Amino acid sequence: MCGIVGYIGKRNALPILINGLKRLEYRGYDSSGIAVLQPPDIWMRKRQGKISQLELEIEAENPAGTTGIGHTRWATHGAPTRENAHPHFSCGNKIAIVHNGIIENYSMLKDELMAEGHLFISQTDTEVLAHLIEYYYTGDLAAAVRTALNRVEGTFGILAVAAEEPDCIVAARRGSPLLIGIGDDETFMASDGSALVEHTRKVIYMEDDEMAVLGAENVTIRTLQDAHVHRPAEELPFRTSDIRKGGYPHFMLKEIFEQPDTMVDSMRGRLLIEEATAKLGGLEGFWDAIRGSSRLIITACGTSWHAALIGEYLIENFAKIPVEVEYASEFRYRDPIISSKDTILAISQSGETADTLAAVREAKRKGALALGLCNVVGSTIARETDAGVYLHAGPEIGVASTKAFTSQVIVLTLIALALGRMKQLSAEEGARIVNALGSLPDLTRKVLANVDVVKALAKKMAVHNHALYLGRGFNYPVALEGALKMKEISYIHAEGYPAAEMKHGPIALIDRKMPVVLVAVRDPVYEKVLSNIEEVKAREGWVIAVVSEGDTMVKHLADEIIEVPAITQCLTPLLTVIPLQLLAYYTAVEKGCNVDQPRNLAKSVTVE
Ligand code: F6R
Question: For the sheet containing 466-471, what is the strand order?
Fold first, then answer.
């Protein structure tokens, strides 16, 4: 959600900033802007729309300047207009800032600054910060930023520059990620490692309430209370190839097809074949506490919440520990009953989702053990939880989550397996699951090889305005996930339901114009799903069924079928979700939608 870049060094800053913004465009793409220091002034351009439009606008200018900042926006306060785009400036245009996050007390600060004669030109909360820094500025940008930020309530990741100080950029963070990339005689800044990796893999992750003064050859970090901070650089856990499309037309398709490999990466070194269990280094030392918990609360949003639902079935099944799944956004505000006997497990691809983070903080405040399951290394949730497991799925750039979902389900399976084996799961059962996990990447490749069937179906799907997705048991969350993928990238209104719930309401919607996507693999609820298909057909609905290879019963009932290979019941979601990801993708492509940057969405929702 919004992206920030900064550069200070010996090279021309502009192309580096533009390229960095393109790498971050998946985080927000309704407007963008750049400021480059050209003492005694600051050169600036910004505009509504995509980075490519900003690039076109400034192509002919190519301003010289080796210090600059840039921003790509996902609007929160104020419409996505040129005026509201970042950077924002002080009255005299001598201080510029880019900001991620929300200044909660901006209205009070704005009134105060207006009374002092400051003129505002945007509707954003960020502009207040530029004026507040100006208000305290007496020739020392770092001092002014510190004083200003100590008056601010809310969250921020900011970069600030002053026309009078071309040799420094000031960075600060609270609740919004910021990384410093260390190059040779040059320093890079970004809200996300994908904008840094082409230049350097040596990075420092800033922590909350820290401020950094950055020069081409030096980095000084202090807290907002002015205490010295020493933090060595770390290595970014991915490479340039991970953030390129690699020949695919969209990141989403690349990420769907990467799944056989990302599944392996999520399991690598974590399966103990002899002992028929799993080993998760990040949870060592915490198993007794988890196992002894009176219940496990899994909290997440969106796709991660769907993975959580599968996690509930897995953990209750294997380990017989009571599990509750909560939307993080509801959990944080409903004053949940939590005690030190509970364990909370937060699932978040980005590790930055504001609601999930707030749920973790609420649970920790009430004494629960907090665990995190994140993809982004060093992310806020990963750092704030007591222990956790990384997905190792590599950067997910497509806004619609795909490979992170399957990795989340795999890691949840490993947690359930390890807990189960510590409790009541037999070695025989454990070995069956370990073997099935081992076969998963090849079976996934088989599903992906069937892409043409899904592509043909997508052509038919694209003419519809609504769709219903149904599943039961382990595949009920898959129905929810399939519907979410379809609606977010193709804008077809799609709803997911537990199949048996259909007759309690949604059945009223079914007629010959209603596509109904059913997951009907051969599992203990198979016969029940067959009845659900009959119910839809009796009302002339158009049935697309995801079935087990070789199925004949559904074939006779459904209009269209997509086959997936057989696998042990608890792992079926990992195969059945893949055709649904592909169906959403090809339907969106058929409709001419921008798959990687769907309207109104952004990767990583760092606001409430
Ligand atoms: C859907 C999607 C979102 C995210 C949700 C949580 O394709 O990507 O629903 O799953 O915003 O994000 P994380 O997992 O980063 O907390």
Answer: 493-498, 466-471, 515-520, 542-548, 560-564
Measured from the CB, is residue 604 less than 6 Å from ligand 1? yes
Question: How many Å apart are CA 591 and CA 417, to the nearest integer?
Answer: 42
User: Model confidence over 333-357: pLDDT tens digits?
Assistant: 888 899 999 999 999 999 999 999 9
Distance 401 CA to ligand 1 centre (A): 6
Whether CATH 3.40.50.300 fits 247-443: no
* CATH for 450-595 (3.40.1180.10, 3.40.50.10490, 1.10.10.10, 3.40.50.10860): 3.40.50.10490
Of these residues, 22, 46, 487, 603, which one is catalytic?
603
The pLDDT, as a whole number, for residue 553 is 93
Give the C-alpha separation, 551 to 535, whole Å: 19
Q: Collect all residues with Cβ–Cβ distance below 8 Å to 282 and sequence separation of at least 6.
A: 387, 388, 389, 390
From the CB of 408, is ligand 1 less than 6 Å away? Answer: no
What is the Cα–Cα distance from 372 to 367, expressed in whole angstroms? Answer: 16
pLDDT at 549: 96
Q: Does residue 597 have a pLDDT over 80?
A: yes
Query: pLDDT digits over 175-218, tens only?
Result: 889 999 999 999 999 999 999 999 999 999 999 999 999 999 99
Comma-separated ranges of CATH 3.40.50.10490 domains in the chain: 247-443, 450-595
The CA distance from 277 to 437, in Å, is: 11
Confirm or reject: Cβ of 357 under 6 Å from ligand 1: no
Write the single-letter amino acid at 115: A
Residue 135 clears pLDDT 90, i.e. is over it: yes
Beta strands at 271-272 and 542-548: parallel, antiparallel or unpaired: unpaired
CA distances, 419 to each of 202, 298, 327, 382, 412 (Å): 37, 15, 24, 21, 10
The phi and psi torsions of 44 (rounded to 5 degrees) equal: -145, 140
With contact defined as beta carbons under 8 Å apart, do 506 and 604 qualify? no
Amino acid (1-letter code) at residue 532? N
Tell whether omega for the bond before 39 is within 30 degrees of 0, i.e. cis. no
Global confidence as pTM: 0.89
Query: Which pLDDT does position 315 carry in this prediction?
Result: 97
Element (H, E) at 413: helix 403-422
pLDDT at 50: 87
Q: Is residue 79 within 8 Å of residue 45, measured between CB atoms?
A: no
- pLDDT tier, 1 (very low <50, low <70, confident <90, very high otherwise): low
pLDDT at 332: 81
Domain with CATH 3.60.20.10 in the chain: 2-242
Question: Coil, helix or strand for 403?
Answer: helix
- Residue 263 sits at the vertex; the CA angle it makes with 358 and 176, to the nearest 5 degrees, is 25
Look at residue 443 and give its three-state secondary structure.
helix
Q: Which atom of ligand 1 is nearest to the CA of 381?
A: 16
Question: If one looks up domain 2-242 in CATH, what number appears?
Answer: 3.60.20.10
- Of 26, 74, 255, 304, best ligand 1 pocket probe by most atoms within 8 Å of the beta carbon: 304
Predicted confidence at residue 605, as pLDDT, reads 73
Task: Name the DSSP class of 592.
Answer: T
**Taking every pair of C-alpha atoms in the chain, what is the biggest distance, in angstroms?**
79
User: In 39-168, which ranges are E strands?
Assistant: 41-48, 67-73, 88-89, 95-100, 156-162
